[in-house]
Amino acid sequence: MSISDQEQRVSQGSTAIQARGNVTITTSGLTYADVRDVALGIFRDNFYILAGAAREVAEARAREITEGFLSRLEKEYPIGLESSYDPDFQHALFTVQKEYARNGDKDLGDLLVDLLVDRSKQKQREILQIVLNESLITAPKLTESQLSALAVIFLFRYTQNHAVGNHQLLGENLDKHVLPFAPRVVKNMACYQHLEFCGCGTISLAAATLESILGTVYQGQFLKGFAQQEVMERGISIGLDDRFFVSCLNDPSKVQVRAYSKELLLKAFDVHSISTDDRARISELFDVGKMGEAEIRAKCIEIRPYMAGLFEVWSDSMMKHLTLTSVGIAIGHANIKRLVGEFSNLAIWIN
Known about the structure:
Elements: H1 32-46, H2 52-76, H3 87-103, H4 106-120, H5 127-138, H6 144-158, H7 167-177, H8 189-197, E1 201-203, H9 210-217, H10 229-233, E2 245-247, E3 255-257, H11 262-271, H12 276-286, H13 293-303, H14 307-315, E4 322-324, H15 326-340
Antiparallel strand pairs: 1-4, 2-3
């Protein structure tokens, strides 16, 4: 059959390729080396010229942070390498290169890489991308104590671990997510004033004690319990149903409502189609015997003695008055990921 006898049918938007022999098709996709060269070129073309050894140090640091970022991006989100010619991507990358070249702080470098990888996953100019871009600029302005404060405040005020079902799990949760930061937080007012100045949070007159936060988020851990006959006396039709009642964590001779928090208790009512009357009566029982703040603090210190220091700093500083902005949340979230590893997607809090 001759070439003139061949017939092709091509759909709209497709390209017809015809040849006498074999055809090799290549794509325009960039390789890791291509993107690395582009990235280092960005730094060389934009960073101010330093003299002598300072220039060599800056270039070495830029190369180090670039390699660290690209290797992470290639592993977690390889399609992100295709954004290397996007102006906003290049601007974000240069921000990281410039800041790391200036100080060479390894912890800051790791934090910036985490932020930049998350930013590279955002394709559209939406709130999360904007917040991450701003976080890349803000994080280098903060000390290790301030970064730790953001992580601790974010953990307690904005997250809840639904797997914390007893005191052992509460302790393990504190070990994993709080212990890496607790020794680094400080009391001095300048620390928190600077966080506010940098746009990471707002200091208000209202105060949220750490005890009250724990007593709300993990209420089920801090109950003294009640006698079993309370369930019958209050006319709860489902009785001592083990879906909603369990032996008290703090006094095995009593029982308590089986829920970590009021929020999760309400969800359990819906899941099990509990009647309106029983919902009201069980909710009332959930607050029976709830520990006071001094008892909550004592229980936490009993579980993990190092919490004594954190309670002291929180109560004697502006931590209890600081609420986080979107930038503060993003930096706190990234700092947790840096030391702890995997954590829930930032889009849960910023969307």
